[in-house]
Amino acid sequence: MESLVLRSVTAVAVLLIGTAAAALLLPASDSQQSRFLRSILLIASPYAMVTTGLVLLGLGWLVRLVLAPVELIRHPDDVGYIPIPGRSRADVANEVRRRRKKGDLPPVYPNGWFRVLDSHQVQKGEVKNITIMGEQLAVYRGQDGQSYVLDAYCPHLGANLAVGGRVVNNCLECPFHGWRFRGEDGKCIAIPYAEKVPEFAKIKAWPSCELNGLIYVWYHCDGIDPMWNVPEVEEITTKKWVYRGHTEHYVNAHIEEIPENAADIAHLGHLHSPGIMSGTDLRYTFNKTWDFVKHSWKVDWKPEPEPNKHCSQMFLKHALLLFGKNCPLLNMGVIARQVGPGLVYLTFDETYFGRGVILHSVTPVEPLLQHVSHSIYYQANIPAFIPKYMLRAECIQFERDVTVWNNKKYVSKPLLVKEDSAIQRHRRWFSQFYSENSPKIDTPKESLDW
User: Fold this and answer.
1) How many CB atoms within 10 Å of residue 198?
2) What is the DSSP string of 250-298?
3) Could you report the per-residue pLDDT of 3-35, keeping only the tens digit for each?
């Protein structure tokens, strides 16, 4: 498919450019036929050149649309808020955040593995400044190709190593005084003006790993080493499944709200029932214009037993209804396996359009700000536009959730009915990722004492 499109672009370009070139290269001749042909080509050549440019631009856009990976980055104020005429999106978002009641919150930073970057986002010799768990990190790739994660602030005088810092071999050099820190253990190995490097001169090196096209770090409030490993997707490693794009969003909510959706079965039949053409604005998703398109969901959520008690699975069956009739071609089976508090593997198994996975990651930036990414890998022999469409459809459905999360209050003791029982089971399962010293934030009392 990809090679066919590229060959078509090349053929059209050669044809149009050849028309213009023929007019310039046609040998001079006094014959009436030759003069007539030359005149026609000279008249046509400017139009051919302009047409060539326009066609190439159009085909370039088409190639990008069909072949290039999706790269959709949403900023914190872009989605999740109802616009108010005459007000900027930032003003509306800030007002909602300021006036919203937060509720009686669980600890804000659970223990586990979290994504910091996609692998392709940090090149060899490059360093990135990342904020997670309220901490500043320096994520860089050494000359050996290995990724490393260090605390960003130099223990000497506090300069940010990721802002102007330099990768030297596999070390990170401070931009202030040139101290160099080793990536694997944070040990300072060089101070340009000192006779000796003190043994205690070091910076925190975060436990990290890189697989599935992502860079992960381990967080534990008590400094405990990783208690489980990040599962590898073999099809990504062997390149049977190839990268087709990713999306990024920011969600103003407690981290637990997001994975809890897997156990909130009832919300799928309401919030996610309207077709994706109905959009993300919750005021209009039930618009009658697209009422003939509906999504149907059947879901079951359950935790996994030992030794994988840190994992849970959601089994989802999706059907698309047109005018109330099922379209079997678009039926889909998805297994969403959550690993720890911040990683989910959405594997597409039962679908006419091949197999693949969306790597869903939730990383706390601040107590009530989550960075959520979706990276899709799909069968290499499936046309790229299919997984790209699936990712965009997932994005639309996800942004409906974002609007709810950004405006809701966390209810620690919710009013539930029998059909909501999976929500309480999910909360008990998720509580294993908190420990006694997990950080909390104080929330003001939400009632007045008279």
Assistant:
1) 9
2) EE-S-GGGTGGGGT-HHHHHHHT-B-GGG-S-TTTTT-GGGTTEEEEEE
3) 555 555 555 555 555 555 544 454 555 566 566
Strands 147-151 and 241-251, sheet pairing: unpaired
pLDDT tens digits, one per residue of 64-97: 666 789 999 999 999 999 999 999 999 999 999 9
User: Contact at 8 Å (CB) between 153 and 163?
Assistant: no
CA distance 182 to 195: 19
Distances (CA, A) of 218 to 141, 150, 154, 162, 205: 18, 12, 21, 19, 11
* Residues 68, 250: Cα–Cα separation, whole Å: 24
Burial 286-309 (b: 16+ CB within 10 A, else e): eeeebeebbbeeebebebeeeeee
Going by their DSSP bridges, the two strands 241-251 and 70-73 should be labelled as parallel
Q: Distance between CA atoms of 156 and 175, rounded to whole angstroms? A: 12
> Closest Cα partner for 217 from 102, 356, 91, 343?
343
Judge contact between 172 and 181, C-beta under 8 A: yes
Contact 158, 152 (CB under 8 A): no
Kindly list the distances between the CA atom of residue 200 and the CA atoms of 129, 158, 187, 196, 288, in Å, as whole numbers in the listed order. 25, 16, 8, 12, 68
Q: Is 171:181 a contact under the CB 8 Å cutoff?
A: yes
The pTM score is 0.85
362: nearest Cα among 340, 334, 337, 395: 340
- Rounded distance between C-alpha atoms, residue 448 and residue 16, angstroms: 77
Peptide bond into 307 cis (omega under 30): yes
